[in-house]
Input
Amino acid sequence: MILQEKRKETTIYFYTGEIKNVLVFREDKVTGNKSIINHARALRPHSIQQHSQLEIAKEIKRTEKTCVFCKYEEHNIPLASKEKRYEKGEAVIFQNLYPFAEKHYVGIITKKHFVNKFKVKHFYDVFLAFQELIENDVRKEYFYINMNFLPPAGASIVHPHVQAFAFAKPTPKHQRIIEGMKKHGKEKWLKEHATKGLQIFKGNLFEVFAVFAPSLNSEIAFISYENKRLKDLNDKELKEISKIITKTINYYLHINPFNAFNFAIYEHKQHGILGFIGLRKPLTKYYSSDRGFLENYHGMQVISVYPENIAKELKRKF
Ligand SMILES: [Zn+2]
Output
C-alpha cells in the first residue's frame, strides 16, 4: 500500500468486514494537494448525533440578539482605512477588530443575520466595495478575499461575512500554486480536469471544475482565462464570479440548509484570478472548528497561545 500512495493516481479496493472500500489516492501537479478519497468513511458511526433542523434554527435565532454585525453601527467597529468604511448596497467593509494581518478586513455581505440562499448581489456588492478598497488602500501586496461560513468552517459569527487580507509575500499554499502553475501551465491543468470529466462550466472569463485532488469535500475551483486582477474586473465579470460562488454555495445549502463552507480567492500574474470553494460539516450545537480558510487554503495557522507562555506554564508541571 505504501508503494501505491507514492503514485500520482491509484485506486485500490478491499473489504474491512462487510464494508467495501474504494480508496483513491491523488496528487495535483499545480496545487501539490495529496488527497485520499473513500466514500465509505462518510458512513462511519458518530458518537454525537446531529441536531434537528428546528433546534439549529432556534440556536441561530438565539445568536441574533447579541450579533455585532446586525447592529454594526451601534458598536465600536473600526473603519476599513483611516478615512472610511467601504459600502455598496448591503455590503460594508471595515477593519477586523481581531486581525492576523495589519491589513485584515471584514465585509458583511447582507443585513440579514442568517441566509440559507445567497443572492448574486451579496457577492457582487462586496466585490465592488473591495475594488474601491484595493484602489485606495492596497499597494503591491498580495490580496486575498476569503469566507468562513458558520462555526464548523471556522466562523466565530453566524452572520454572513467575508474576510480579506494583504501580505507582502504570497501565503505558503499560494506560493506552491504560483510555482506549480509556472511549471505545469494553466491550459494543461484545465484540459486535464476536462479530460477526466471534471469540467462544470465555461464562462466568458472563468472556467469552473471539480478539483481532481481536493482539500475539502465537494470542492470546486474557478480560474480566469485571462490573467486579470480583481480590481480590473468589469461589471459583467464581477457578476460572473459572483454567480459562480452563489451557484456553488446554494448547491451546498440545498443539500443541507445549515451546511458550512470555506472559500479563498487568489490573484497573480501567473494564473489570473483563482478561487476554491469547499464544503464543511453542517452546523450543530456542539461543533465549532478553529480551522478556516487560512489553514485550509493558505497553509497557515493562527495561534492564540504564545509558545513562550506554554513553556513557562508546563515547566512547573514537569
Ligand atoms: Zn447578525
